[in-house]
Design goal:
This protein is α+β, with helices and mostly antiparallel strands and 278 residues long. It has four helices and 19 strands. The chain is 18% helix and 43% strand. The strands form four sheets. Strands 1, 3, 6, 7 and 9 form a five-stranded mixed beta sheet that branches. Strands 10-11-12-17-15 form a five-stranded antiparallel beta sheet, with helices on one face. Strands 13, 14, 16, 18 and 19 form a five-stranded antiparallel beta sheet that branches.
Length: 278
């Protein structure tokens, strides 16, 4: 009787493990030998391996990039294993197909099957902190802090209004994003309540009927943006925006608006400054 119970327990355990593994079905990516199939990952690729010689996955091994290229020769199906810089692991079935209907795959972080360095959360504090901050936010926080520690004054873009001074200290390009290091100084005797700080692109229409059109740019991330600048106080913060460039008839506009006040500042930034960041 005890023997039957032990055997039954082993079978149940084995089935439970098999079912747990079967719940994650690997997606299939098709490739051939006449076209490049591009795979775009949420983080730069550190390593990519195929299980068979009739599949080739190429990526930049010297400078980590977000995409790799897959090609295949006729043969049996295989698998592709990719590890991102942050340790996220992605696994796919790869098959040869003569006619391809899809050449680009944009792979979200949710497709990761795990991480090569499992995160152990054995305390309430670590769980709450790690769950609330994703990888992109963590990177933005670190890079913005680095920019604020590294002071660099460009000197050109400064605007004033009744003791309030708005300055762009730096514009830095990194990972398809523009980082605007901004400084606000309040030399007046009244606190400055910030209503909004907007970045927009202004297009100057030529011709007899000249007009201006503005397209607002939504920040990806705001680092240490204050709601109030006290009397004789200076604050520095960072706006992160998707990379953009400007033609000769366009310029960027930075608008600082005071809540329940009139100490508003508008700063016009030329296309040359935006197109040549640090």
């Amino acid at each position: 009787m005890k023997k039957h119970i032990i055997i039954s327990a082993i079978i149940i355990t084995a089935l439970a493990k098999a079912n747990a593994q079967a719940t994650h079905v690997l997606d299939t990516i098709y490739a051939n030998d006449t076209k490049n199939v591009a795979l775009f990952f949420p983080e730069p690729i550190r390593q990519g391996i195929t299980g068979s010689d009739n599949f080739v996955f190429t990526y930049n091994r010297e400078k980590e990039q977000y995409f790799g290229l897959l090609q295949a020769k006729p043969g049996k199906e295989s698998n592709l294993l990719v590890v991102n810089r942050n340790g996220a692991i992605f696994s796919y079935i790869v098959r040869y197909k003569k006619q391809l209907s899809k050449l680009n795959y944009f792979i979200p972080l949710s497709n990761s099957i795990g991480n090569e360095k499992p995160i152990v959360t054995d305390s309430i504090v670590s769980e709450s902190n790690q769950e609330s901050i994703d990888n992109n936010t963590y990177y933005h926080q670190k890079f913005c802090s680095y920019l604020l520690d590294r002071r660099q004054y460009l000197g050109r873009y400064i605007r004033r209004n009744n003791g309030v001074i708005l300055r762009i200290e730096n514009v830095v390009f990194d990972k398809e994003e523009l980082y605007f290091v901004i400084r606000i100084e309040n030399r007046s005797t009244l606190d400055y309540d910030l209503n909004f700080l907007n970045m927009s692109i202004e297009t100057r229409q030529k011709g007899k009927m000249k007009s201006l059109q503005r397209l607002y740019q939504n920040p990806i991330y705001k680092h240490k943006l204050p709601s109030k600048i006290g009397e004789s106080e200076m604050v520095r913060f960072v706006y992160v925006l998707p990379k953009f460039s400007l033609s000769n008839n366009r310029r960027a506009i930075l608008e600082l608006n005071e809540k329940n006040g009139e100490r508003n500042i508008e700063m016009k930034i030329s296309h040359n400054y935006i197109n040549n960041p640090n």
